[in-house]
Structures are given as structure tokens and as C-alpha cells.
Amino acid sequence: MDAATDLFYTAAVKKTPAPKKTTSSIRRTKPESKIDSQSAPVSAALMPPAAVIPEVPPKGKAAIGDWIWTCRPGFEVDLAQELLLLSPKCFAAPLDGPFVKSVRRPAILPVLGRQVLCVQSILSTKTGSITDVAAKISASILRGLANEKVVPASSHWSLHVWGPDTEEGKKQSAAIAQWQTAVVQKLQADVIGLSDPAALGRDKSRSYDHVVAQVCFPRAETAWVGVTRQGELPSRFPGGQRRLQLPKGAPSRAFMKLDEALEWLGVAPGPGDICVDLGAAPGGWTWGLLKRGARVIAVDLGKLDPDVAKMRNLAHIIGNAFQFSPPEGVDWLFGDMVWRPLEVAALIARWGKNHWARFFVVNIKLAMKKKVEMIYRIKTILEQAGWRDVKARHLYHDRDEVTFVGHR
Ligand SMILES: C[S@@+](CC[C@H](N)C(=O)[O-])C[C@H]1O[C@@H](n2cnc3c(N)ncnc32)[C@H](O)[C@@H]1O
């Protein structure tokens, strides 16, 4: 038995005391309610002061030159606050729909921004036939490519045509597909040798310099056109909508949060890596990690899905994640506990201080009003604990929660 295997099995048999509370009583606990004696106390030294969150102005209107950000519907005010925090003079203001505008792009991308476009043209779709409007959109794109000094017939640029990720937006999806076809046809008529820029493989768009022409339809009657370098964008996917399919056998939709997080991180556990998954049940993350060939110590107050529990290379510990510690350092720490965010942050900080894992990917729930303040407090707590390159992102599959990653 090698050292890693030894560690894996030692951890598996190590007993973690089960908490007195039942899972259901914990789930019912309101965030920010009184401290439970079972949880790790949050050290005062770990508590950075709360950021002063700026006032958000009333709704505005998009104008040429604005940066227009999209977010998960319902997060517009939070995103505007975050933009103002990152760049006080960016004049961020919510727009109609899941959009926020700012007059400049902060140097640091906001956690809550799924995608952004710098508006070069605002076009009305009602001013002519679909062919006429597609011609105007195509002309605007070609102007943007010329500004960016990109040869239009090259594969150095992609086209993203998208609408808001709302119920209203979903109803527009057939119309958006028609617009995409019309714009591509017009571009191909104007540019000899152009292959479909909307169908370019995402791997081609990995480089900072790759150019992305975006056409966003915030409503059926309006199109915003913008041409930007990929390095300025939060996502490589149209509208930041990274849609994933739930694979057969995955026991929970949470699987997609982890898959998206690992894709964003750009590094993932491989065969033989030892992973600890805190708050693992019913087992979507654990299942995904096992499928990647990793060995997993899954810790949860509750049981795993029976099909996951039967899988090889898995040790399941029914117990409290706050009382679990690995006998030796592991490769990866994962966490998706429904629990008070500052206490989860303090737990991940403890793992960082003790060098118990090399990488972490943790989803922290933000069911409170002051989300922006909480995100930056958590980030500081993790950085102060020695985690490096701590990044946070409101991923497409994240709901009222944000994914944090970092390494030692
Ligand atoms: C959102 S679910 C996790 C879903 C899981 N990542 C998946 O892929 O299926 C949250 C889990 O956190 C667990 N949890 C909450 N507090 C915990 C604690 N103190 N210790 C261990 N597990 C905890 C709950 O029992 C619940 O199963």
C-alpha cells in the first residue's frame, strides 16, 4: 500500500463524531442565526472589516461606449454595487432586464458579472427587414474588427449572438437563432472565405487576444453590438451561459456546478489524486471526481446516493465537516455545504493554514442581502490564511452562491 492509499484508508476509518443536530434541522437554520456549538468558531482575527458598499443609482439607459454587463437575474443591484466598489467612478447603474451598465470596465472583473460587451452600436430591429438589419449588424461587426486590426476572413475572431437568460429571453431563442443565421450569411457574403464565426471551437477562443464580436438582443426590438478582446471578458461562452448537460448516472444537478468550476479553473483532479468533498451528499461532486479517476473522501451529515456509495475509490464519512481533519495533506479540498458563509470560510482558512490541501474549490452560499460585502470578506479570509490566487466567480450553474478557488 503506497503512502497515498494508506492516507486514504486511514481517513476512511477515522471516526468523525456526528453532530447532535439532524441534517433537516441544520437545513432549516436561517443564515446568520446564532452560532452552533458544533461549528468552528470564526476567529476575530480572521474577520476583515466589511467593505463600504456604495449606493446604487436608479435604472439607466444603455448608450454607445457603455460597458454592459449581464448577471444572473435578480443580481443586478449587487453587480452594480460590486462595479462601484471596484471602480468608484464607473457610474454603474442597472438597466432593464439582467443588465448593468458602467462607463468604464474595472481593472478587476466583477465576481457577479457573467459577460460584458462594450457597446459600439445600438440598433433597432424594427427599422427594416431581417436582411436589412442583419446588414447593419454585419457592417458594425466589420468596423469593430477593423478597429481591433483583425482580418475578417481569419479564425482570430468568434461571433456570439445571445439574449438574456430570463423566461422572456428563452422565448426569444428561436428569433435569436434566426438573427444569427442572417448575420452569418451577410458576413459570409461580404467576406470571401469566411467560415462560420459562430461555430468556432471554444478552444480557439482561449487566448487573451482572440476577438469576440457580440450581438446581444436585450429585447426583441433592440440589438447591441460590441467587439472586444477575449481577455477583457469574464466568459468564453455567449452571454456567459455555459450550459452543461447532466450526464447519465450523475446523482444531482450539483455535478454541473463542479464541472463548470473545474473548466473555469483550468486544472482538475486526475487519476489517483486524493480529494476531500465536504458536504458531499447526495454525491454529484463525488461522482464527478470518481469518474475522473480520483480517490474521494466524502464527508456529510447525510447519506450518499446508494449508487454512488457503491463506487470504488470512495470512503464515505457520515459526520460533521467542521470536525473532520485529514491525517495527512490531500491534493484537493472540495466543499458545497449549505451552511453559514463566514463559518465555511473559516473552515477553508483552517485547511489553508494547516496545508491540508494543495487546491480548493468551494461553493459558498450567499442567502443574505449584503452579498458583495460577504464575497470580499470571504476572499480576504481565505487570502489571509495563506491560500494563493484566490478567485471567486458566480458561475452559470451557481444560484444564490458563489464558487471560490485557490491553491497553496
Ligand atoms: C448542496 S448539498 C451538497 C450537494 C453535493 N455537492 C452534490 O454534488 O450532490 C449540501 C450538503 O451539505 C451537507 N452539510 C451541511 N452542513 C454540514 C456539516 N456541518 N457537515 C457535513 N455536511 C454538511 C448537507 O447534509 C447536504 O448534504
Notes on the structure:
With 408 residues, this protein is of the alpha/beta class. It has 2 domains: 3-48 and 243-407, Rossmann fold (3-Layer(aba) Sandwich); 67-240, VC0802-like (2-Layer Sandwich), CATH 3.30.2130.30. The chain is built from 11 helices and 15 strands. The chain has helices spanning 3-13, 23-28, 76-86, 130-147, 167-171, 173-190, 254-265, 284-291, 306-309, 341-353, 371-384; strands at residues 67-70, 93-94, 99-102, 115-118, 121-124, 157-162, 211-219, 222-229, 274-278, 295-300, 314-318, 330-335, 357-365, 388-393, 401-407. Strands 11-10-9-12-13-15-14 form a 7-stranded mixed beta sheet, sandwiched between helices. It has a 4-stranded antiparallel beta sheet with strand order 2-3-1-4, with helices on one face. It has a 4-stranded mixed beta sheet with strand order 5-8-7-6. β14 (388-393) and β15 (401-407) form a beta hairpin. The longest helix has 18 residues, at 130-147. The protein is globular. It starts with a helix and ends with a strand. The model is unreliable at 1-5 and 13-46 (pLDDT under 50). The structure holds S-adenosylmethionine. The site of S-adenosylmethionine has 23 residues, from α2, α7, α8 and β10.
